[in-house]
Amino acid sequence: MSTVPSDRSPDSTLAFLREGYRFVGARCDRLGSDVVQTRLLLEPTICLRGRDAAELFYDEERFVRRGAMPMRGQRTLTGVGGVQGLDGAAHRARKAMFMSLMTPDSIRELGQLFADEWRTRIPAWAENGPVVLYDEVGRMLTRAVWAWAGAPLAEADVRRRTAEMHAMIEGPAVLGPKHWRGLVGRRRAERWAGELVERVRAGALPAPEGSALRVIAEHRDERGAPLPRRIAAVELLNVLRPTVAVDRYVVFLALALHDHPQWRDPVRADDATAEQFVQEVRRYYPFFPLAAARVRRSFEWRGHAFPQGRRVLLDLYGTNHHPEIWPEPERFRPERFAGWRDDPFGLVPQGGGDHTGHRCAGEWITIELMKRAAAALTGAMSYRVPPQDLALDLGRMPALPPSGLIVDGVRPAG
Length: 414
Hints:
By secondary structure, the chain is an alpha+beta fold. It has helices at 13-19, 23-31, 51-57, 71-78, 88-99, 104-128, 133-149, 158-170, 177-201, 212-218, 229-244, 246-259, 264-269, 271-284, 316-320, 363-380, and strands at residues 35-40, 43-48, 63-64, 131-132, 290-295, 299-301, 304-306, 311-315, 381-384, 406-412.
């Protein structure tokens, strides 16, 4: 049994924070292997990239999620005790709760709420001059997903709730004040989400039948017990936070339209082309960098030893840019998705495998919201993109253009 090619650095945590999305790929390229070992947070860690590696990673007979994500990520991004860290029957029961929300009608309803928010904001953008698209889209998504989830939200609280979601999203892979803001945002958000759950359970807050708030408040686990208040709060945030995070994909979509204007008319004219464009945005641009698991029991794969308990990271960005899966991976080519059949291990921006496993249940929501944004950007309004810094720093996780993408000269279409 051979050893996994190893990065000999005593610890690579600072390099990971500095190199970001390219960290795993750089070591794979240097060592000539899609399976490499390094040390992160002083712990030996195996890193994988590529389609076959993704298929291996989502084998639940070989890997578990419990204890895989570092606590700094749980305490900011996902919440301690959330579905992402469960396995077996507990995970199946909790994931079924989320999947029950993902009906086609429900997804269309959220998409329509977002489209209505966008249409409502266009006159204000036209009147008030330049706007930062990232800021505006984040607040629109907050309003839309709170309404869809059945959670009350006063207009005066929109900025604060959006800022809390952003703080949690940005908290795991940074040091200092941004990480602290993620911790504070998580505590505050869990407190008010828990209060909403308790009010629904007490009959003091009517939540619509089938809404995320009601489904989570009434959910019973694999033993038939209701979720503890804090865990229910975590899972409500696991609906709200990832939806607000789609604001980054919307910015990337607008950036792609700016960089490739020849696609504007085809995207506006044809739904199939719009979906190809959306999928290429999801493949090409950086979103969540890695997924984490631990080895359930020792095994060997392609001559490499995977010891029991070893932390393993799947490079999502690197898999989406792997030349054996995606020819010319650094070129933006939406036409590659013409006639494409979903490959659950080749396109993994929000995880891989089956949606009943550890692939993001909200992936369909992401695609719907991005298609609604594409329709708005190409058909509902005209605008200009003034000179600004739109460079993406792949060392920043999560990545975003420094300007947040400023648009001006907004006018309603027609």
